[in-house]
Each structure stands twice: as structure tokens, then as C-alpha cells.
């Protein structure tokens, strides 16, 4: 039976007996192999090799089927829904807005504190608090969390770059050097939502950066969902499990995104190893999306980005008719 449920709801009932038989699915997956001799229907046998190449269908990587497998509890987005969200992201103006090394530096937070408390830190106002709209500008925010070098900044660029392009925009600064992003960095997407890039945890990170991110995810009212990024090349690690535990214990909703799937050389092995991670039994039943932001011979397109865009839309409460705004605040 196919179960369809709303995101973010506690559905512990569903967690029981929710196992995925990866082996069975791998065996039943119909792989699309692009054969060099493959020719289109009605093509003439004498066609040149270069012409045949033009018609050759690009192979879909085997790991892509994981997207359907792990999100079977949710309604699969239709092609038209994916087209709508793609249109939104492709036509949105992306604007870098702010960086913050301390949570108090996040726009709206300092003034909220000042207006809310007297000098001794006691609550000054009870009930409704006045915070200037232009400082808070209540757009929904999503945050990218993950180990340093997991691909957070790159995924932000990938999401905001037209899928027809292989060269990514450079809104967020990415680097081969782990621990490159040191602050929270916010990007406005079409004046409808914000994506906040965070400093990675683990190698080359600092306690202060970790505290900053934790403070942000616990206190920021505008934050509607965290996205935990995990490199497919490295797979899920101890630190990732700690973050999952932390988010779950605080009741902070999150989704999981595997990045760098183009670097996974043995898809079958990867798929079998994800089965042991019990990802489908995680509290809150997060969506699990598998993506690549860099293209290669084995991954000629950026896969999973449209699914992630659709998930972000759902988390931000945006309808498929949402269009980017080019003036004003909304
Ligand atoms: N092959 C491949 N490389 C990727 C992908 N995503 C990111 N990278 C590379 O991984 C490296 C790290 O990417 P970043 O986006 O800077 O990683 P980050 O998580 O922001 O890292 P910190 O800022 O250090 O926390 C860069 O060299 C990227 O080009 C991907 O999907 N495929
Ligand atoms: Mg970064």
C-alpha cells in the first residue's frame, strides 16, 4: 500500500515496519544504458556516428531511484509541479543579504532583544512585540547544515542556477578547502524565501561556529526547516548522527540531502550501505534527497535538484503558482 502523508507531521505509527528492500529494488531497476549504436526510430542505417550521438538518451544514474524509494511515504511531485518550481528558481533574482558571525548580528535579532528586555534582561513587553518589518521581513528561511566540505555552499549555487546550465552561479563562496564558510550567510530568492548557508561542523571548524549555528537553528523564528547535507562520497558519519539526535531532541524539523552523488563510483554498494543506516526510521520521517551539483560523464545532468526545489517550496508553504517578486518586499 502506498502511504501519502503531510510533511513535518509526527507519524510514529508509520515508522514501524518501514523497511526498504534495496536489493530487490536494485534487481528490479531498469537501467537506461546509452548504447553508442542506439539509433532513433525510423532513422536511416547510413546515418553518421555524430548524428546518432545527437539522439542518444542520457543515462539516468542508478542511484537516482533512491529518491523514489526513500520518499515513498510522500506524494511524488508531478512533472508539471516540478516545472513550476523550476520556473520559479530559474527566474528568481538571487540576492546576498547578510552575514553574521554572532547570532545577535542576524538582522532583526538585536532589535528584538532590545525591545523585549530592559537593561537587567527582564522582559519589557508582554504580548505583541513591535519589530520593524524591514528588519525582520518575515520571509520563510531554510538553513543548510552539514560537515565542512559537505557541499552546502555549492548546493545553494546549484539550486539557484538554471538546470540547463552546467556552470553554477557563484552566489555563495565554495572551496575545496574544508571549513571555508565561517559565518551565517543569507540569500534572498525571488523575495519569497531565504536560504541560509552555515559554517560546517567537523574538520577545520570551531566551537564558536558550532554555537552560532545551534543558536540560529534553535532561536530563529523565521527558520521553517533545516536541511542536513551529507556527502554521498563519505556517507553518513558519527557527527551527522549527533546532529540528527540534537535536532530530533529539540523538535527542530529537518530533511536530509545527499550531495556529491556523482562521486559515488559503486552505486549498488552505496545503496546497500544506506539500507543499514536506518534512515527511513528517523524521527519526523525526513525527506531524503540524493543530488549532484557537479556534472560528469556518468552524471551528465544535475539530478535531484528539481526534487529538492519542490521540497523547499513545500517547507516554505509556497504554492506552485508562486512567482518571484521583482520589487517590494514580497
Ligand atoms: N563532484 C562534486 N563536487 C562537489 C559537489 N558539491 C560540492 N562539491 C565540491 O566540494 C567542495 C566543497 O564544497 P563547498 O560547497 O565549499 O562545501 P561546504 O559544505 O560549503 O564547506 P564549508 O564551507 O567548508 O563548510 C568544493 O570543491 C565543491 O566543488 C558535487 O555535487 N559533486
Ligand atoms: Mg561553505
TrEMBL record:
Report domain EngB-type G positions. 138-318
* A GO MF term: GTP binding
Signal peptide (UniProt feature, chain positions): none
Cross-referenced CDD domains: YihA_EngB
What SUPFAM superfamilies does the record tag this protein with?
A: P-loop containing nucleoside triphosphate hydrolases
Q: Which Gene3D superfamilies match?
A: P-loop containing nucleotide triphosphate hydrolases
**Keywords, sorted A to Z:** GTP-binding, Magnesium, Metal-binding, Nucleotide-binding
Q: Does the keyword Lyase apply?
A: no
Q: A GO CC term?
A: mitochondrion
- A Pfam family the protein falls into: MMR_HSR1
Q: Which InterPro entries match?
A: EngB_GTPase, G_ENGB_dom, GTP-bd, P-loop_NTPase, Small_GTP-bd
For the region Disordered, give the residue spans: 33-52
Q: What is this protein called?
A: BN860_03312g1_1
Q: Which organism is it from?
A: Zygosaccharomyces bailii (strain CLIB 213 / ATCC 58445 / CBS 680 / BCRC 21525 / NBRC 1098 / NCYC 1416 / NRRL Y-2227)
